[in-house]
Amino acid sequence: MNNPQKKEGPDQDLRSLLKAQHKRVYSICRFFANNYKEHQRLFANIISAASQSIRSRRGEESKQVLLLRACINMVALHSITLEMEPAVDRSIQFKSPDYQKNMLQFRERMGNISDFDKMRLFLEFEKLSPGEIADLTGPLPSRNVVPKEGIKKNFIPYLKEKLIWS
Amino acid sequence: MELKNLQQYWDNFPEISMEERPVLSSDLEKIVVRNPLSDAFYLKKKILFRIIAGGLLLLYNLYQLREQYTTGGGDLDRQVVIFFTLGYFVYFHTRLLLFADYPALLALRLMPFLQKVETILDKYILSFGVVSILCGFYALAILEKILFWYKPGALLSMNNSGIYKWLIIIFLSVSFYILFLHMIIPKYKKLLVAVRRYKNGIAARPQKK
Known about the structure:
The complex is a heterodimer.
Chain A lengths: L9 H23 L3 H20 L7 H21 L13 H14 L4 H11 L4 H8 L17 H9 L3
Helix pairs in contact in A: 1-2, 1-3, 1-5, 2-3
Chain B lengths: L1 H10 L16 H4 L12 H28 L4 H25 L1 H4 L4 H41 L1 H9 L1 H22 L1 H19 L6
Helix pairs in contact in B: 3-4, 4-6, 6-7, 6-8, 6-9
């Protein structure tokens, strides 16, 4: 009952896209992975996240945008997970001496920048315009917002916040 | 200038060696079908399990409620409270599952994505409150069964004084909540704090580029 035509459908398109874009995914791992294992895990997670997003696509977003969103969201989760493991070795360790040397030099040149700056840098290297970058990150909250703690909330806004999830 | 140098360096970056190349194209077939979220972030199975368990308990509760109503049993008030608690429990988890929308979660933009992950974890932690109330009710039901077999007299005296029954339920519920607070909730709380800190870190970025 296996239909040979089935493999040629959207799944095949997806696989072709991921195969064509895998270098892009490798390259974002340079910013966030410190060794082979992390690199492998992050790469696999991004690919599966991208495939999941593309399969369940509902809006007008292009596959390229969904792939980049998957990259950014997965590196954020990767960083959060690493942050929760304080004992993890953060030194750069790759088997290939050439790759190791380049990674060390690249990280040195990049300096100690935040994850968000790394993401922006990656997107700029991918030749994305500021508008496209903003579309991937979403609206950032204003820095002048007064922290919620310490403010006595009225009952109705409090109830609204509890009942409406955003 | 510095950015230009870095861009040049980036463009000439060597390929990762074949021995370290994370995934070959043949492995892509396996990767595309696996779940990218780790157990800590992927709560779908746990929420689904709770909805199914809550649904089954609700059915059993309806049967008991009907039995109490037709026989004029003295346990009707407790069954009514369990009915509403279970109804809320199922509603809360169904709403959480629909809100989480796991297949489309990773397609969100970064800030809405982090916001949603934070809300899911926050609501999941809150759900332990309802779980502990239900645990209190069902622990008392088990206790009553045990008493029925070993000390029927004690069961009769407990059933006759309704206030003690409710006090026991409150005591058991609080005990279960304290147990969850020490055994299960810290894991999710730690994750929630990490997500919140990460999100706030992005929001508090320096203005200069």
